[in-house]
Specification:
Chain B: It comes from Subtercola boreus. Chain B: It is found in: Cell membrane. Chain B: It is a multi-pass membrane protein. The complex is a heterodimer of chains A (about 300) and B (about 300). Chain A is an all-alpha fold and about 300 residues long. Chain A has 13 helices and two strands, in the order ααββααααααααααα. Chain B has a domain of about 210 residues: MetI-like fold. Chain B is globular, with a radius of gyration of 27 Å. Classes of the chains: A mainly alpha (about 300), B mainly alpha (about 300). Chains A and B meet through α1, α2, α4, α5 and α6 of A and α1, α2, α5, α6 and α7 of B.
Chain lengths: ~300, ~300
Amino acid sequence: MTALRTGRTPSRFGSARLAAKSAPYGFVAPTAILLIALMVVPIILVIGYSVSDGAITTKNASFAGLTNYITLLTDPEFWNAALNTLVFTVSSVVAHLLIGLGFSLMLNSKLIGAVPRAVFRVIYILPWLFTAAIIAVLWRLLLDPQGVINYLLQSVHLTGSPIAWFGDPSSALLAVTVMNIWAGYPFFMISLLAGLQGVPADLYEAARVDGASGFQQFLNVTLPQLRPIIISMAMLDVLWTTQQFALIWLTTGGGPISVTEMLSTVTYKLAFTGFDFSAASASAVIVLVFSLIVAVFYVRSQRSES
Amino acid sequence: MATITTTRKNARATDARTDGPAKGGGSGAAAITVHRAPRKIGLRLGLLLGLLAGAVFAGFPVFWMLISSFKTNTEIFAYPPQIITQGFSFDAYLAVLNDPEEIRFFINSYIVALSVTALTVLFAIMAAYAFSRYEFRGKRVMNVIIIGTQAVPPIALIIPFFGLMVTLGLYNTYAGLILTYIVFTLPYAIIMMTAYFNTLPKELDEAVKVDGAGAWTALWRILVPISVPGIVSVAVYTFMISWNEYLFALTLTRTNDLRTVPVGIQLLIGQNSYEWNQMMAISIMGSIPVLLLFLIFQRYFIGGLTSGSVKS
């Protein structure tokens, strides 16, 4: 719109019009160059690697067709990782949503003063401010067999003997999931809190006039109003959680006996410990395709809202 | 839980109603008035307990990290675990500060994060200006790429990035890491910045342009100075992302003189095999920049973040 208007005013001067027309390209040039060179090109590259043999490691990689995909998709280890990723993602996202919603409702309450509310909000956001590498090291300390969580569980007799949470095949997936839940709910909470503050007060007023109880107001006013945020946050969270790498890599490394192996750790190991960059690329492309499918739904949900 | 948020108003509203037309549910209204006060105290108590339980869940691990950083290594696994240790010891911090290798991790993190922040902010301001004020050919395509980029998993890009950086001679350099991070921070920064510019009336910068100034001048003289809150939120976001990044920092660097704090912590695990107090000390020190930025700028930051990520 602006371009049209500025273009019309100095219509006597061809060069000014040209400048106005080319101006936006100057402004987006750095972004466009970077995104093409380091986003579009790498995506093409990884797809290319995935249908080749000996990518990166050999000078002239040969075309391999879908061999890498077939090998991968017939490998039970890959399906094990996919299943683990599914369990890890679904439980994380559900817990993130529930904790985020619970915390945001508590923080939005008018029953507490502004100061305690600010203090609790900062405490609740804390986990989100730490890098995954630090969270991983911290939880290794907390969940150590001799660590404080085992001590607490034993002192309330929830467990008889100390548990090696990350080392025991029966508890490792639970342990990484709990750690991921702790690390990831705050972004949900912040978004839902912003959403709660945006719910028009007269909707509650109207519900109250109709005699709705608090719980009914929550069901019929709060939840529907938060729906768009919940849907988009859930989709973003699915994207992020399926890609979680650092937390797993730095606690269990996918073990013990592959119970915490994820698509991300499988991909990384294929590439950087097995140096099979072609197979790793095929695995990466599978993750990419899944992510893009979720992203299409995300963009659609955003569009329908606006 | 919504009960909690609305009870105060609720109470007022029902009180107002009861003295007037108490026709419909006279007895019900009366019952409510009787129970009002104790119920409200109960609610408040329940809320407080909930808040405290939440604070323990969120805060205890962080508290334990802080406590452990002041313990000696033997005290860390003392049984039963001690909250207050005998000697409040700074040894772990001193050990980190006296290790040139670990100081190097911090310097590297600052070099990378600050460069990424400066460049991302610059490019995002420029691109957001074009997106907010112009219609141009290719705008839709770029828009799709920018939104789509956020869905591209880092793990899917790590392999081609490794290949590219080796080919371009940028493997194990600051430049390689900085360029990488910009690509990941820039799209969201542009979305946030465009949302911010869209809130500013177009007349502001158009007025200057009518006076004969170019778009560049209008952007930097008029829009940028009044967009400081938006720019701050973009900068804080970018700094946090690049300070905390792990996967690319791990993969695109090889030597310790280029490694950042998150990778450095991992090295510490390997080298000193469980110097827990040192690991907690470097974790605290490595989190301080982000914690401080967040505490100082949280108002701007949360606003910018939520306006960019979720349309509600």
